[in-house]
Specification:
By secondary structure, this protein is mainly alpha-helical. It has seven helices and three strands, in the order ααααβββααα. A three-stranded antiparallel sheet has the order 2-1-3.
């Protein structure tokens, strides 16, 4: 079985490791970015190599499952670093209008995202996504890195709810973490992703 092997690389953070303090400590950012995110990149590349080496008739399913988990982790973490910001931001008029139409207000959308993180069953993510069939924004939970993704939806914001994202700074207090991390939402990058997803929506 042949795949198009394009090695994944760990992106640099768009800010300094200590920039998210006090919401996230410098130590937590190093651990999360360098170790956890880095491990998904390494495993994804290794799995691609193993898929390339499969002989005809070999069962690819275990490797494909591993690839989905690790590439999903890499993609979501890459999105996560640009979903949070050390400075306060506001959504554009176009994104604000879409949020208001879908949830009533930015505050209500943020509360729903916080609740989605807080109430994850096990490990996973909370995301604000554009769902093109209903032509609206929705909040969804993603279990692990690759489950429960609504087909065709495009992520606008993603927040990590795995313990490694918060345990060093918040211990077992996931509700406190959920409220704090949503407050750091980078609405500038979210607005850019929304504009690219919905080019017909005026800004």
């Amino acid at each position: 079985m042949q795949t198009l092997t394009i090695p994944y690389t760990l992106p640099d953070l768009p800010y300094a490791y200590d920039a998210m303090s006090p919401v996230l400590s410098e130590q937590a950012m190093h651990l999360h970015h360098d170790k956890h995110h880095g491990s998904y990149v390494k495993a994804a590349n290794e799995t691609l190599e193993q898929l390339d080496g499969l002989a005809e008739g070999d069962n690819p399913s275990p490797l494909l499952k591993r690839l989905a988990f690790n590439v999903g982790g890499h993609v979501l973490h890459s999105l996560y670093w640009t979903s949070i910001s050390p400075t306060s931001t506001q959504p554009t008029a176009a994104l604000t209008a879409a949020i208001s139409a879908s949830f009533g207000s930015v505050e209500k959308a943020s509360a729903l995202l916080s609740g989605a993180i807080e109430n994850l069953a096990g490990s996973g993510w909370a995301a604000l996504v554009w769902e093109p069939v209903s032509d609206r924004l929705i909040v969804t939970q993603l279990h692990d890195h690759q489950g429960d993704v609504i087909a065709g939806s495009v992520p606008i914001l993603a927040f990590d709810g795995w313990e490694h994202a918060y345990y060093l700074d918040y211990q077992a207090d996931r509700p406190k973490w959920a409220a704090a991390i949503v407050e750091t939402a980078d609405w500038n990058s979210a607005s850019q992703r929304f504009a690219a997803t919905s080019p017909s929506t005026p800004d």
